[in-house]
Write a structure and sequence with these properties.
The protein has about 500 residues and is mostly helical. It has helices at about 5-20, 25-50, 85-100, 105-125, 125-135, 140-150, 155-180, 185-195, 200-215, 225-235, 235-260, 265-295, 300-320, 325-355, 360, 365-370, 370-385, 390-405, 410-440, 445-450, 460-475, 480-495; strands at about 60-70, 75-80. Helix 11 packs antiparallel against helix 14 (about 325-355) and helix 17 packs antiparallel against helix 19 (about 410-440).
Length: about 500
């Protein structure tokens, strides 16, 4: 295995970001450079996947392990396994699709810097290095919202950075507690030990700190309140990357660090995590129902609230501490990234053309007036509500299966109750998406828009969005694309 691949994966977007920030070039040239750099990064990710040994998906591969801060034994330790590989591929793909739509040199530089942090988080194998990459993401996303966002961008960006910095601070303290108990930041060594050498009380303390720290980013109810404002005000590329990748960093942290390294603490907190996950599912459903049927519904805000519910299923799967549940969480991460990324692309296209994403102002008849945009909104919404045969179905189904039969030692009556409530959430999700489609996609075009000539999705849009449609269908029909990659890794994490 070529040991230079993962540094190259991080180095390409880092170099692209520096060049675009330092050298003033025309917008078209900047878009060409940014798209080329992100495409090259995707090719490296594909090469990593091509060389990956899928029979040993639980073992870190393409490892780089170099001295960095020898005083405290912090190392520049990178590697990829069956859990991180799908997220790396998803991240690289979404950045390419975003880059193809960016028309600002500095925005392109910010997005490439954001890619460095996102990819680095998924391949870091040292807790301090993980924290560094986790933090690299925050400032670029803050800048995307604060500089290129909507009318309320500054308050939304401030709320985002305050919440996420609080979560990061608690996460760092949790890492330090683990280091004090074990004397190492090495994530592979901690996973092999599977909690040995860390007392039950220390595990519970560290797991609680990480529960809140990762919960902010996941977003876990009630720590989610920054998300709707951030999504509503962010530019389209910001919303796509926020939903498609950044939210996954929190749930990835649960699976990568809390479950294998702190098994006793994870088991103690699993009932609370399950309850908070289901509370988020139901709360998001009722919020979306109110938006879908209300007089001042905003499409971006509705999709943002729906993300809280979808990520609630991911958290519920993790809380079961079963192979089925954690597998459901991992495929749910990928499915949500693909489907919600497509939804934000389409709604961004609608907003660019109509200069609003307010459902009442848009009126009905989008499918009749703009067949391509309306059709894509229909496909993405049906995928998001969890229709069998599309990607969104498998994460919810496996999370419910795991909750129906949770790990030994967890309360079966409690998780059966959570299964029933979460299943009700799947029905409510279908209701609010269908209510939204009835108001926006179907019906009669309103008088305000009937006489106006509005362009449908352009060829470049269709080229950029089609891969997400293909993945939504492909993963739905063949979930083994994701599940077979992560199967052995999940078994190893659960011990």
């Amino acid at each position: 295995m070529n040991r230079a691949l993962l540094p190259l994966l991080l180095g390409l977007p880092a170099l692209g970001a520096v060049l675009l920030a330092a050298i003033k070039v025309p917008v078209r040239t900047a878009r060409t450079i940014g798209t080329a750099v992100s495409a090259a990064t995707l090719l490296v990710a594909i090469e990593v996947a091509t060389r990956f040994d899928y029979g040993a998906g639980g073992r870190a591969q393409d490892v780089v392990n170099a001295r960095w801060l020898p005083t405290v034994d912090v190392r520049f330790h990178l590697g990829i396994d069956g859990i991180s590989l799908p997220l790396v591929l998803l991240t690289a793909l979404l950045v390419v699709l975003c880059a193809a739509t960016i028309r600002d040199r500095l925005m392109m530089a910010v997005v490439l810097l954001l890619e460095v942090g996102m990819l680095g988080t998924f391949v870091a194998l040292d807790l301090v290095l993980f924290f560094v990459f986790f933090e690299v993401v925050l400032i670029p996303m803050y800048v995307l919202i604060a500089v290129w966002g909507g009318p309320q961008r500054r308050p939304a960006a401030t709320k985002f950075i305050l919440f996420t910095l609080l979560g990061s601070g608690l996460m760092l303290v949790g890492f330090l507690v683990m280091y004090a108990a074990t004397g190492t930041f090495d994530m592979t060594a901690l996973a092999r030990a599977h909690g040995h050498g860390i007392t039950a009380g220390t595990q519970l303390l560290a797991a609680t700190l990480l529960l809140v720290g990762f919960g902010v980013k996941s977003p876990m109810w009630p720590l989610h309140t920054w998300l709707p404002d951030a999504h509503t005000e962010a530019p389209t590329v910001g919303s796509v990357l926020l939903a498609g990748v950044l939210l996954k960093m929190g749930t990835y942290g649960f699976v990568r660090i809390v479950v294998p390294d702190l098994p006793s603490g994870a088991r103690d907190l699993a009932p609370a995590l399950g309850c908070l996950a289901v509370a988020g599912i139901l709360w998001a459903c009722f919020a979306c129902l109110a938006l879908a049927r209300g007089p001042h519904a905003d499409l971006k805000r509705l999709i943002a609230f729906s993300s809280v519910g979808h990520m609630g299923f991911v958290l519920l799967g993790i809380a079961t501490l079963t192979s089925a549940g954690v597998q459901g969480a991992l495929i749910g991460n990928i499915a949500h990234g693909v489907i919600t990324g497509l939804l934000f692309f389409v709604v961004g296209g609608v907003k660019d053309r109509f200069h609003t994403s307010d459902v009442t102002e848009l009126g009905g008849g989008l499918l009749a007036k703009l067949p391509a945009l309306g059709g894509l909104l229909l496909v993405a919404s049906i995928a998001s509500l969890g229709l069998p045969g599309l990607a969104g179905f498998w994460g919810e189904m496996l999370a419910l299966l795991g909750a129906y039969s949770p790990a030994a030692g967890l309360s079966r009556p409690l998780f059966l109750t959570l299964t029933g409530l979460a299943a009700a959430g799947t029905v409510l999700t279908a209701v609010y998406f269908l209510a939204m489609l009835r108001r926006v996609d179907f019906g009669v075009v309103t008088d305000r828009w009937r006489g106006e000539r509005i362009a449908d999705a352009a060829a470049v849009d269709l080229v950029a969005w089609t891969p997400l449609v293909v993945l939504a269908v492909g993963i739905g029909v063949w979930p083994g694309l994701v599940l077979r990659v992560s199967e052995s890794a999940v078994k190893g994490l659960l011990g």
